Amino acid sequence: AMKEDIKLIDLIIELVDARVPLSSRNPDIDDIGAGKARLILLNKSDLADERCNLKWAAYFQEKGYFVVKVNSRSGAGLKAINGVVQEACKEKIERDRRRGILNRPVRAMVVGIPNVGKSTFINSFAGKACAKTGNKPGVTKGNQWIRLNKSLELLDTPGILWPKFEDQTVGIRLALIGSINDEILNKDELALELIRFLQKQYPNVLEDKYQADASDAVELLNQIAKARACLSKGGELDLAKASRLLIDDFRNGKLGKITLELPPECPSGNTNVEQTCDEKVK
Length: 282
Fold this sequence. Notes:
alpha/beta, Conserved Hypothetical Protein Ylqf, Chain: A, domain 2, GTP binding, 12 helices, 2 domains
């Protein structure tokens, strides 16, 4: 169905989560969208490390995409989109003009994996609730054209998450941002993965937020449970509750601005994300 829809449009507006820009891309979109103008929106950029946002924007621009950093919920960055759409579709608009077709709106399609913010983006951008939104993956159903203004029409399509992850790390990142159904996940394991990542890449976050300081991830989770009084009925530490709390704090930006992956050209390993992005942006 997506291939059929693509024939109708001039521009693909692809939403990715700024905290995991590569992991939150549907890998098929480059083949399906070959030959179309492309705009990538780094959504939820307010939750991501700003130095890494700049690096990711440069990474995608080098590959020929137009890029805008946005926060669909607050509306930040949305004003810049119309101008970028006109720039991205300059050739098409010029071609129309030569044929004597004036003011035909650019037709664009919004794509992205579940829960990356497509419906929220369309609602904010159009200024009215024209796409059904929710915080669960797969809430958008069916296609509809939305006339935004004289120069732009949007087709909203459900983002489709590919069914299997060849790379387990990608699955973990998507689970952390909430793009995979929470019901099918072991929250404790996920929380430990997040702790290990933060220890390596943002070493002061857990101490600043929970006064937790240990080298062992399980011990850190225990300390978080103590700090937040996560106790079961018998007075035992409730690690499942502490895990949920930690993941929610990450998703809501309460741990600070955190990016979970770097562009492929960035060195990783022992270098932490903060330093690496800093060096790359300087």
